[in-house]
């Protein structure tokens, strides 16, 4: 009697080929396409929230105009204590690492979102190397692309755009200031005739280098892009969970991958790399500084809500604005809860603890004037966060702002590791670059050469 033939599927299973056939038969699904409004609504449904409170209006003539009255600005004056553990234990210097981990967990879960444990590797490629002159300084300008491994999900491609410019006559590795910004071929926009030198020229004048990373090459700056970019790649084109990372953490991740590359570049002293950004990129800069302890110094420009401004302040932009359809993608989905039914008072952390996570490293908080930049950014709210972070710096043997009195415009507070200056201009870090570079010189200047050993007598 003849035996029945073994079914093909069984034979494939026995030979270990069934999974390969299945994968071939089921190609990866393309990224889910949604508008920001659709994705925001989906997140509300996941959180079981019907609606959130309306954000403040930047138009002062609006019936819902943002508050600019200091007497009404602090409805929730009590801030979480960064020096008390969850179990009530008072934090000592020896316990700070443990307390730091607790604070990061709260920011991960409720504010900025969690970075996946196994993010794809990045392979850096130098696509161009040019000898240029910036101002009157000869430089070597490199264009780089960080190719993110997408073998697990080929339908999303992420190529991080970065430029690195260093003095051509440098005798060794130099400090580098990296900016979140747009790529101008390494040179930056030409300064106006008769105006001050560009920030790039000011950096080069110190013998340092600079880099510019393009955040949107890492992750799009909108909710519709959350199923692409590095977030979409890690999620294989699917929408986020409520505690997944948002764009700010994604941009910070990109900056950290750039620093990985700098650690391999002989032109860069990777232990003396600073991070700078303005506005939403100021938010990204302080998030980068807080999470990646390898960055030596931070220059945080007009970062406002979601950055160095206290969430508990009702002045200018509010939690409700950041949680809305235009900005929610910066944050974890869980953050939306604090715009309804919860409030900023219910947040387990606030911006002073974000500043504290930078300790003991130096950070300068920069802002423009109320008259020109306006009150949306909330200069005082960022200053107050710096003041409230001071106990952590002191615990670690460093200095803070040294005062709780809001300084006069153009008064630089730079004696401690937390620094602050409000310039007379608008939404820019431009007027504060000289102050920052003088401040940074204290930490990034060339280390003194070791003294030769004294011969034994």
UniProtKB/TrEMBL annotation:
Residues 55-81 are annotated as: Disordered. Residues 1-24 form the signal peptide. Residues 244-397 form the 4-O-methyl-glucuronoyl methylesterase-like domain. InterPro entries: AB_hydrolase_fold (IPR029058), GCE-like_dom (IPR054579). Pfam families: GCE_fung. It comes from the Bacteria. Keywords: Hydrolase, Serine esterase, Signal. This is 4-O-methyl-glucuronoyl methylesterase-like domain-containing protein. It comes from Gemmata palustris.
């Amino acid at each position: 009697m003849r035996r029945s033939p073994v079914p093909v599927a069984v034979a494939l299973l026995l030979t270990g080929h069934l999974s390969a056939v299945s994968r071939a038969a089921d190609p990866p699904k393309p990224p889910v396409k949604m508008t920001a409004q659709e994705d925001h609504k989906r997140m509300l449904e996941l959180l079981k929230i019907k609606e959130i409170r309306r954000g403040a209006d930047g138009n002062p003539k609006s019936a819902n105009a943002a508050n600019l009255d200091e007497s009404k600005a602090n409805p929730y004056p009590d801030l979480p204590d960064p020096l008390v553990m969850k179990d009530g234990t008072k934090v000592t210097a020896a316990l700070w690492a443990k307390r730091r981990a607790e604070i990061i967990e709260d920011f991960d879960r409720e504010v900025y979102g969690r970075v996946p444990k196994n993010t794809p590797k990045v392979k850096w490629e130098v696509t161009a190397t040019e000898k240029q002159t910036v101002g009157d300084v000869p430089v070597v300008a490199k264009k780089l692309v960080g190719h993110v491994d997408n073998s697990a999900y080929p339908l999303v491609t992420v190529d991080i755009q970065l430029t690195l410019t260093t003095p051509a006559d440098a005798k060794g590795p130099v400090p580098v200031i990296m900016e979140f910004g747009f790529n101008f071929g390494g040179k930056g926009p030409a300064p106006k005739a008769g105006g001050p030198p560009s920030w790039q020229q000011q950096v080069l004048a110190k013998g340092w280098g600079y880099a510019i990373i393009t955040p949107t090459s890492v992750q799009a700056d909108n909710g519709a892009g959350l199923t692409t970019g590095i977030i979409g790649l890690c999620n294989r084109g699917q929408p986020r969970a409520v505690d997944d990372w948002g764009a700010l953490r994604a941009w910070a991740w990109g900056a950290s991958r750039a620093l990985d590359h700098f650690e391999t570049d002989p032109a860069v002293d990777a232990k003396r790399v600073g991070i700078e950004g303005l506005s939403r990129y100021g938010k990204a800069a302080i998030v980068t500084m807080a999470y990646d302890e390898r960055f030596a110094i931070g220059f945080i420009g007009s970062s406002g809500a979601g950055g160095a401004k206290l969430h508990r302040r009702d002045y200018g932009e509010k939690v409700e604005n950041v949680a809305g359809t235009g900005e929610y993608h910066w944050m974890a989905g869980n953050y939306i809860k604090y715009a309804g039914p919860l409030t900023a008072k219910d947040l387990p952390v606030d911006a002073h603890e974000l500043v504290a996570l930078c300790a003991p490293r130096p950070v300068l908080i920069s802002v423009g004037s109320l008259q020109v930049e306006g009150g949306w950014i909330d200069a005082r709210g960022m200053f107050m966060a710096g003041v409230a972070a001071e106990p952590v710096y002191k615990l670690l043997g460093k200095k803070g702002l040294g005062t709780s009195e809001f300084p006069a415009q153009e008064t630089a507070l730079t004696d401690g590791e937390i620094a602050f200056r409000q310039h007379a201009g608008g939404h820019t870090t431009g007027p504060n670059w000289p102050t920052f570079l003088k401040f940074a010189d204290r930490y990034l200047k060339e280390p003194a050469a070791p003294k030769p050993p004294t011969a034994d007598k």
